[in-house]
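Hi again,

Forgot to attach this to my earlier email, sorry! This is the prediction with zinc ion bound. I've pasted everything inline since the attachment limit keeps bouncing my files.
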Amino acid sequence: MSKSCSSVTLSLRCREISSSMLDYLDGSLPPEEAAMIEEHMRLCPDCACFKATYVATTDLASKAFSRALTETQRALLCTKLRDALRSA
Ligand SMILES: [Zn+2]
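Structure tokens for the complex follow:
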């Protein structure tokens, strides 16, 4: 058994997962895409870890505002996070 993680054929690559993570957590992805991300995270510890980090980060960010974000603030935060992820 020399089968490594990287030999698993993944329907979405990690980079695509990371760029879709915000939409995934937002619930704005089509169900089939969300399902693909969930499936990918089951196979890919890196992306599962990324999601956990991402959730923790956005949770901290929202706490930093110390009250519920308005839709505008939330959209702005999401845009900044998305830009940061895409340029990573
Ligand atoms: Zn991955």
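Residues 25 and 55 are 8 Å apart (CA to CA). Confidence is low (pLDDT under 50) at residues 1-9.

That should be everything now.

G.
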